[in-house]
Amino acid sequence: xxxxxxxxxxxxxxxxxxxxxxxxxxxxxxxxxxxxxxxxxxxxxxxxxxxxxxxxxxxxxxxxxxxxxxxxxxxxxxxxxxxxxxxxxxxxxxxxxxxxxxxxxxxxxxxxxxxxxxxxxxxxxxxxxxxxxxxxxxxxxxxxxxxxxxxxxxxxxxxxxxxxxxxxxxxxxxxxxxxxxxxxxxxxxxxxxxxxxxxxxxxxxxxxxxxxxxxxxxxxxxxxxxxxxxxxxxxxxxxxxxxxxxxxxxxxxxxxxxxxxxxx
Length: 264
What we know:
Strand 9 (159-163), helix 3 (171-180) and strand 10 form a beta-alpha-beta unit. By secondary structure, the protein is an alpha/beta fold. It is built from five helices and eleven strands, in the order E-E-E-E-H-E-E-E-H-E-E-H-E-H-E-H.
C-alpha cells in the first residue's frame, strides 16, 4: 500500500465524485480502526499543495447516508495528515430566499440524526469537545469569499438541520424544522463535522441548494435534485479549485486545539 501525506482534503458529496485538476494523482487504499472509508482516496498535487479526495458515498454513489462509515472516513484523512477539510454537500432549502442553485456556507447545525457513531471517544478516554462554533470560521470565510469573487449566489451563514435519511421529510417535519430556525436540510453533515473537530481538523462545507424542502407546495423528488446538481457540478468544482488556491499555509483558527482541556 502506497501511503502519502496530504495537507487538505476534499470530501465530494452527491454529484461530485471526482476531482480533475490534481497532478501526479494516484489512489490510496487505507484501513482504519473503524473499517474502510467510503472508497479509495485519491491523492495529488495542486499549486504545490498535497490534496486528498474522498467521495463520501463512493465513486458510484452506492452508500446511502444512514450507512456511511463517518468515523472511517475522517480517521483515514487524519492518518494522511490532513489539517483542513472542504466538504461538498447537497441540501434542501427551508427559506424562500435561499434558492435552488445557490450556495450556502453553514455555521451552525441542529442534529436530528439517530444511531450514528458520532465520536472517536467510545472507551478508554472521555472527551467533551466544544461545538459551539462547529465549522471552521477561517476556512468558511475563504470558501465564501471565493464564491463571491466568482459572482455565485452565496449565503455566508446559516443553520443546517441534519436528518437521518434516506427518506425526505414529511410536510409537517419540514415546517417544524423551518420554525425551529433551520435554513437548510441535509443528511450527512452530522456527524462528519463533529468527528473532524475531534480529529482537530478544520471543516467547512459548500452546501449546494438543490430544491425547496417539502414545506413548499412542490414535493421534493430525486429527478429535480439531480438536475440542479448536474447544473451546479462544474460550479462546485471550480469553487473548490479557487478555495484550494486561496487557503493560507498556516492555520489562524483554534480547530487544531479542539482537544485541549476537553478530555477527562
